[in-house]
């Protein structure tokens, strides 16, 4: 019973992932693609949460933290590059 | 957890269906944040009830997602607005455009009063948005 619920949740997340990939492919602007990539990064955290329950282990909880931080930094970097043209500002 | 997964699904449908970047981010940031919050909270409750193990790292992850996902959405959309990405055709109001035009005019006037040569700042609109 519980496993069935988990499988249904995983399937819904997978369909969502496929839809986001479609948005990345057809996205008219670069910002659309970054937005979809950010959403995918957030979605993978959900995947890991369900996998932790499914496999009955809590060793993946580090990966949740690392994935959120990496996704955040990546999104910030990309959008700053699009806005200013550089990623790291210089003072000179 | 099922609620979280369904929420993620709805969010992805919104990202596919909505007409422009701004509404898409509206769908993407809010509901996928809520999706992950629900999922991680489910995992936390599962471990707390089943094994008596209170995972602080999961709570940290929840707090971090809650803090960073809206900020990321905000930054993307600001970049999109600066790059003059077109809004949907049904858009009627663009209040920020008026404000930005006014600020640009005032800056130009100030510069011409102080005797500088006016150079049109076309860098923003030249940026490619393919």
Distance between the termini of chain B: 38 Å
Nearest-integer average pLDDT of chain A: 82
For the CA atoms, what is the radius of gyration of chain B? 22 Å
- Following the backbone from N to C, one meets helices and strands of chain A in this order, namely HHH
Biggest interface, CB < 8 A: A-B, 47 and 54 residues
Beta-strand residue fraction of chain B:
under 5%
Largest sheet of chain B: none
Shape of chain A: flat
Helix fraction bin of chain A? over 70%
Which regions of chain A are unreliable across 5 or more consecutive residues at pLDDT < 50?
none
| Sheet of most strands of chain A | none
Strand element count of chain A: 0
Give the structural class of chain A: mainly alpha
- Uncertain stretches of 5 or more adjacent residues of chain B: 122-130
Strand content of chain A: under 5%
Q: Which percent bin holds the helix content of chain B?
A: over 70%
N-to-C span of chain A = 63 Å
Structural Rg of chain A: 17 Å
User: What's the structural domain tally of chain A?
Assistant: 1
Number of helices of chain A: 3
Question: Quick summary of this structure?
Answer:
Chain A has 92 residues and is mostly helical.
Characterize the structure shown.
The complex is a heterodimer of chains A (92) and B (130). Chain A has helices spanning 2-26, 30-55, 61-84. With 92 residues, chain A is mostly helical. Chain A has one domain (2-84). Chain B is an all-alpha fold and 130 residues long. Helices cover 74% and strands 0% of the residues of chain B. Chain B is built from 5 helices and no strands. In chain B, helix 1 runs antiparallel to helix 2 (21-50) and helix 2 (21-50) packs antiparallel against helix 3 (56-82). Residues 122-130 of chain B have low confidence and may be disordered. The interface between A and B is large, with 47 and 54 residues.
């Amino acid at each position: 019973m519980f496993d069935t619920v988990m499988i249904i949740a995983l399937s819904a997340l997978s369909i969502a992932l496929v839809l986001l990939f479609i948005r990345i492919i057809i996205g008219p602007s670069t910002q659309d693609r970054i937005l979809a990539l950010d959403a995918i990064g957030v979605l993978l955290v959900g995947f890991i949460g369900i996998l932790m329950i499914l496999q009955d282990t809590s060793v993946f909880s580090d990966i949740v933290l690392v994935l959120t931080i990496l996704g955040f930094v990546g999104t910030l970097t990309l959008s700053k590059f699009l806005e200013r043209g550089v990623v790291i500002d210089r003072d000179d | 957890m099922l609620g979280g997964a369904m929420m993620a699904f709805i969010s992805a449908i919104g990202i596919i269906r909505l007409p422009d970047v701004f509404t898409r981010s509206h769908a993407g940031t809010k509901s996928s944040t809520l999706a992950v919050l629900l999922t991680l909270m489910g995992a936390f409750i599962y471990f707390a009830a089943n094994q008596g193990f209170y995972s602080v790292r999961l709570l940290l992850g929840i707090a971090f997602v809650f803090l960073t996902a809206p900020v990321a959405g905000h930054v993307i959309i600001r970049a999109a607005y600066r790059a003059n990405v077109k809004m949907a055709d049904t858009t009627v109001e663009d209040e920020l455009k008026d404000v930005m035009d006014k600020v640009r005019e005032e800056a130009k006037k100030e510069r011409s009063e102080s005797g500088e040569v006016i150079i049109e700042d076309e860098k923003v609109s030249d940026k490619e948005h393919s």
